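Course assignment 3, question 2. Fill in each field.
Student: A.L.
Task: Predict the tertiary structure for the chain below.
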Amino acid sequence: MSFSNSASFLCLLAFSLLAHTVLGADPLFHFCSTPENFTANGPYEVNLNKLTGYLYYQTPPTGFGQGSIGQYPDQTYGLALCRGDASSSDCKTCVVDAGSEIRKRCPYNKAAIIWYDNCLLKYSNDGFFGQIDNRNKFYMWNVKVVSEPATFNGKTKELLTQLANKVEATPKLYATGEMELGESTKLYGLVQCSRDLSSAVCKKCIDGIIGELPSCCDGKEGGRVVSGSCNFRYEIYPFVNA
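Answer field:
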């Protein structure tokens, strides 16, 4: 069972990448699978309930959980991933909220995915562990445009590429960094992969979405490309030298 066939594009007006608590309460986006559904109270739903309960327990201590419950044709696969800097308590809250909300939005779909600022949760009746998910993807961007887009785009790509190279060596497949753009401005960046991917596949995933910068965020002061397997975000912000 596959998810949506095409990426969706979401513009969040004047969002702040650093104001995590502002966005954390509501889902950023979701996809429901088509066209196959499961029967209410049937064996697939029983397995899905067990799987989401398992992810609630397994994910918070490390920020990542994955598992599979049942046997074909009612087997379900799922994972949950929390942002690399999220606390265990915030991670648990997000995963529980995600599991509850996605069942409301996709009540009988065999596959679904939902993203919050602090986490994502995904499940399917097809095994997907270790595979890059480019079918489920959305963009977010700040509506403000910088004064010199070409130069800024180059700096953004440079920072995100540095982080893509760095993320391979991190156990959480999560990396952040910043770059000075002038005397009073910095560029902040973040990249992260779902930990069912190998480090090499993670880098391939990040490199792929960096290639979408022109489509997503050309000259924008902040932006994100978010897929089912990896994501990046960047934002410029002012600072004062000590």
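Instructor remarks: The first strand starts at residue 8 and ends at 9. Confidence is low (pLDDT under 50) at residues 1-24.
Grade: pending
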